[in-house]
């Protein structure tokens, strides 16, 4: 039996590829939308730091940085794994055009995994702020380092 009998018609392969591309776009867009809406909700939860303590004018210390949220990484990873499995299934089924299209979207989903992991890492590990100087100006201080009798205003 020749190897060409395992291959399907090119027109059917292209039509299946088109349908799968539409399904891939919907799946990746839904995952990205869900991750974005989840991130918006997280922004309001994290905004509670720095509120004034009742009875004082001094704001409370900022809350500790939240831990890394693995949900978007796992979600895009699941989409990537699904697309990779479909790529293998279509390749073995002889649908080469569909397999290449699925492979391209699997790479796009892998990129989404990397971007979401990097974003979550940056959010969970912010750059430390530069220390501020306790220097408040020259009022009441001597520039020469002498006692207060040498300085004006002292």
UniProtKB/TrEMBL annotation:
Q: Which Pfam families match?
A: DUF6234 (PF19747)
DUF6234 domain sequence ranges: 9-151
Specify the domain of life of the species encoding this protein. Answer: Bacteria
The transmembrane segments are: 12-37, 73-91, 98-119
Q: Which UniProt keywords apply?
A: Membrane, Transmembrane, Transmembrane helix
Q: What is this protein called?
A: DUF6234 domain-containing protein
